[in-house]
Amino acid sequence: MPKLPLLTGLELIKILQKIGFQKIRQEGSHIFLRHPDGRTTVVPNHPGEKIDRGLLNKIIKKDIGLSRDEFMRYT
After folding, report:
1. DSSP assigned state of 5
2. Mind giving me the DSSP string for 9-71?
3. What are phi and psi for residue 54, nearest 5 degrees?
4. Which residues, 6 or more positions from 73, have their beta carbon under 8 angstroms from its beta carbon?
5. What are the tens digits of pLDDT across the range 32-44?
6. Among 45, 54, 36, which Cα is nearest to 14's?
7. How far apart are CA 57 and CA 37, in angstroms?
8. Domains with residue ranges and CATH for the chain
9. Distance CA 74, CA 67 (A)
10. How far apart are CA 12 and CA 16, in angstroms?
């Protein structure tokens, strides 16, 4: 299984938008997204910083409910 890529917050948001998530609001540097089927997630957007692979894995598995392989198809 390949390692997850290091992504910035904006890169992850673009991928999530391809999957169908929409930006609903922002509080500071945290962007809240929702899918029409009810799934939600929060993505930190700190300029110049990459999202840690542990947090990315949590977002993929628990928040959006995809496997790593399914997620990698969108990257």
Report:
1. P
2. HHHHHHHHHHHT-EEEEEETTEEEEE-TTS-EEEEE--TT-BPPHHHHHHIIIIIS---HHHH
3. -65, -45
4. none
5. 999 999 999 999 9
6. 45
7. 21
8. 9-74 (3.30.920.30)
9. 12
10. 6
What token pair was written down for 5?
A: 């890529």
pLDDT tens figures, 12-62: 999 999 999 999 999 999 999 999 999 999 999 999 999 999 999 999 999
55 vs 6, 7, 37, 43, 48, CA distance in Å? 11, 11, 22, 9, 17
Whole-prediction pTM? 0.92
Overall size of the chain counted in residues: 75
What's phi and psi for 31, nearest 5 deg? -105, 125
